Automatic annotation (TrEMBL):
Residues 5-207 form the AAA domain. It comes from Acinetobacter marinus. This is Chromosome partitioning protein. InterPro entries: AAA_dom, DNA_Partitioning_ATPase, P-loop_NTPase. It comes from the Bacteria.
Length: 281
């Protein structure tokens, strides 16, 4: 099982779109694929599951898919930490009731593609998880289901917080979405420092797989200059760059990944090229 985290602490760079569309192509090519949504905004969850039967919502709010990552981490917080012979015995009995990630996985409408949805409530658990030092629980839970999946894609919130760090610890590779502006370039340096520190302190297997340039306008001078600077800085920028397209908005609106909405569209083909380039790394 190869686990990739899609991470950038800057918002609006296309994390969810990239996560879902790469995962959908992975599944379409026969890989048993799981998407884990750790962003409380739940964009990946909604993109894949749409208005699935196991969601509840009013007209004024987004769907809440249940069960979800909140329930997994709520269970983690509730696990007993008693010491001594009696405490260990009680803990053993109670731990047998812990369901783990298996209990919060949803089958998507697409073959080979599963998703663990997020929840707007997820952030309310962050302090408790940090104070109880539960930073390795996602990694440990993923290892228990490793035989079920070939590829895992983790969508993260636009912040370097407990959930992002958990994802980095649980992953083998980092994909960095990047939109071509000066602020993104500056933020990228901080992001890379966070990845390096996580590798040193928590996860020797973690590596930056590459920078995915999104919303790239080849005819404009500034994007070309910024990409050239990234390469001059010896950053691993993928050759395949994603252009802007209204097709992506339609894909979001219809809750259909591009490969299932418009398989022959130029943007879909670009995503296929990007997937192939990533898999060759």
């Amino acid at each position: 099982m190869l686990t990739r985290v899609v991470f950038n602490q800057k918002g609006g760079v296309g994390k969810s779109s990239i996560t879902v569309n790469l995962a959908a192509i992975s599944a379409a090519q026969g890989y048993r694929t799981l998407v884990i949504d750790l962003d409380p905004q739940s964009n990946s969850s909604q993109y894949i599951l749409g208005s699935a039967h196991d969601s509840t919502h009013s007209s004024a709010e987004l769907p809440t898919f249940s069960p979800n990552m909140y329930h997994f981490f709520e269970e983690v917080v509730a696990q007993p930490q008693s010491k001594g012979i009696l405490g260990s015995a009680i803990g053993s009995i109670l731990n047998n009731k812990v369901k783990g990630l298996d209990a919060v996985i949803h089958q998507s409408p697409f073959p080979n593609l599963h998703v663990i949805p997020s929840s707007a409530e997820l952030g309310s658990l962050e302090h408790a998880l940090e104070s109880k030092h539960k930073i390795y629980k996602l990694r440990d839970a993923l290892q228990k289901i490793a035989s079920q999946y070939d590829r895992v894609y983790i969508d993260t919130p636009p912040a370097f917080n407990f959930f992002t760090l958990s994802a980095l610890i649980a992953s083998n590779r980092v994909l960095i979405p990047f939109d071509c502006d000066v602020f993104s370039h500056r933020a990228l340096l901080t992001l890379l420092e966070n990845v390096v520190e996580t590798r040193q302190d928590h996860n020797d297997d973690l590596a930056v797989e590459g920078v995915i340039v999104n919303q790239f306008q080849a005819q404009a001078k500034l994007p070309r200059e910024i990409v050239a600077q990234l390469r001059q800085d010896q950053l691993p920028v993928f050759d395949t760059m994603l252009p802007p397209s209204v097709m992506m908005k339609e894909s979001h609106l219809k809750n259909l990944p591009l490969i299932h909405l418009a398989a022959d569209h130029k943007l879909t083909q670009t995503y296929r090229q990007l997937f192939d380039e990533i898999e060759r790394e």
